[in-house]
Write a structure and sequence with these properties.
Length: 862
Amino acid sequence: MALKYAIVDIETTGNNLDVDEMIQIGVCIMQNNTIIDIFDSFVHTVQTIPPFIQSLTKINNHMIENAPTFHDFAARLNDMLEGCVFVAHNVDFDLNFLKKYFNECNINYQPKYIMDTVDVFKIVFPEMERYQLSYLSEQLHVDLTNAHRAIDDAIATANILMIALEKLNNLPMNTLKSLYQFAKSMRYHFDEVLFDLIREYKGCAMPFETTLGLSYVKKIKHSAPLHIDETFESFFKRIIASLDFVYRKEQYELSFEIYLSLKHQSEITIEAELGSGKTLSYLLAAAYFISETRQSVLISTSTIALQNQMIDYDIALLKQRGLPLPFQIIKSKSHYLTIEFVDYVLKDQKSNHDILILKMQLLIFLMSGQDGDIERLNLNGGRKIYFELMRSLYLPKQQETYLFDLLSDAAHIGITNHAHLLSNRKQNVFEQYQHLIIDEAHQILNYALKYTTLAIKYQDLKYIISQTLQEFDTSGVSQKQKLSDLTFFQYGSINNELHQMNEKYEQLFDYLLQHYYSDRIVKAELTAQDEISLLLHEIKQTLATIALVPNITKMQRKMIENLMHTFERCVQNIDAQGALYLLFNNHNKSGIQIILKENKIRSVIEQYIINAFDAKIFISGTINSINEHNVLSDLFMESKKYIKFESSFDKVKAPLFIPNDIPQFNYQHQDEYIEKCLEYILLYLNRYDGKALILLNSYQQVELLRDYLYDTALDQVILTQNSDVNTTKLNQQFNQLEKGVLLATQTFYEGIDFKYSGVKCVMIVSLPFMHPKDINIALMKDEVDDVFLDYQVPVAVNKLHQATGRLIRTENDKGWMICFDRRIVDSRYANKFKHILRNYELFEGAIEDFESFLSQVYKSFS
């Protein structure tokens, strides 16, 4: 008979088992993937429900005032749970509270089997970004209307568990058996669940392949070659008409220039303002070129989000209207799993909770029918560290089995992002592309800067050292083995050497913490005789000696050599530059990073862009900022064709107000600055309907303004960005509002579509300068003459230019802006912003003038 599950959720007054009380319990009894019984009750307590819990659960003191006590239904509940697998999302919390209450009723509740759905859902749904119940419900289309209500959470958990069990039930038998073997070592009793599925197994319905005993589904890609038999102009007009777009001469000329550059293998820099239709323009140019020449074109975007937007919207729309563009996302081979590598990981003897979950995730992932892209696994924490360790130790076979064909032979559009384009690749995955289109070219600088450095994190390296120590550990060898194994003494000697090396490693980071700690990045000037240099040299020499020892395994030698190479790079950096950069994330050595600046931005860009492709098209809506970068201007702007395309629709100059009664912005006194800005914000919110996008520079500023608005703008819907919020989802929520405010950070300055049929408002609280402690500022000091004027100012100008693009995005948009930061007109570098201000009708004044300004603006829009 199939197992019976009791899915339990408990709401409490807080998380402290000793002092907090239960206020609601919900239980679903599930068997054969069907809910067969439900228990739902508020629980009486004399304890007052804290405001936060009331807000979270929507349970108030009145609801529990006349509710039954736990004692009233304890016996009935115990009978209901009898013989069931106890299931909960974060099971320790619910089970411990329940046991406490049962004990108080003299009931010794000890479930035979326990299951934590956080672990189970991580394993069964390895591609999820997060595993909160609300997020899982949304992604799996499970109804969860009243999150943090016990019975609603319990039912949602049960429904997700049904989907999980159904997915497991459709796996091949050998996959289920492998999962079962790993689950036997896990906490709780997922193995019993898997054994129950194996016992009732009815077979796998989907077709799959098997290699090395591992079952997988290979992704099949089909793309027919493009055939376009007409002139470029005729083709362009036909596609624009099929999309129901208005033909615009400027957009045609933009697309034609890109096509000509591809055809003649030339270099061109294009400033294409918002509204010029640049994405569609370069896609149509690439399509026509591919059809004509049967040569592939590579397109690079600044972020994966923009890459996905191009695929999910632009390319998908063209396909709907009869132009199926052959495309492929391009990454290096190291980004994809192979069956041989998965087999290597599964056979590794290392084992802890994170490692077990990762191994089981890989088994499920092989059956997903995806391309094996590692990024889909969203690895973090211990799973990521272990995965990277195994990847560094793995020696690829001569013939690796990928889950899809890595490169297409047919001409197509390759799609990548700047980070991958500029990465230090071992395999040249772009060798079949001679033609490159770089969208958002202004972003190249920061991505190139990233690839001039190597970050060595204390925690990551500590983990690798501990794994290496385990490989040479002889503590578990018996005395008889010691006498018979001649290599034991050799291993014991290596083990001692490694322990001494580990002590020196700890000394190194203790020294860094003691002598260099700072709340910002530090450039430690060093010589070969400094303590840091000596410790690094001793560590490197110890590892070099061990690497020469015969009779150690290939894996052991690889682990030693990887460690040695890392410390060798540190020594070389000191020899070459006389310095190391140090970053402290907290007042603890576990948060220390050693950052090696190993290259110059110019050499990275020349190697991976300038010298690597024949045709190079650089496109940006804010290419003007590149002129301000000493590093980029001569690479992108000199001796190359430069064209500027205006918006393909007629934009009316939007009004922009700059207050003159706001104190000068200062990082140390943000409170009083934002309080003054608040007067303007409230004047608008309290008198006018509409939507406001308020852009700030940090989560700290967001929280500060949010707290002010919660107290003073009671009838407004206020959305706020924080580190846990998905930017795309937040943007969608904001676009669905008829009225409201979104407080967002610099990630909303570009690539976000602010949609609204009414009067839009964009507020810039302070100019988007980097925080003074930003690591990039320190790393750029040896790249430019003046790091502020040559780097920080151009970056801020570019970001502001992008932010202004959130306002007028189509010919139907109408709106106004306010910039509270007077540095835009009063500072010594204000002339850098002039090209942005020219696009606006500028007004300046105090709060009284702002009232008049708003009145005139809304009168003109009515």
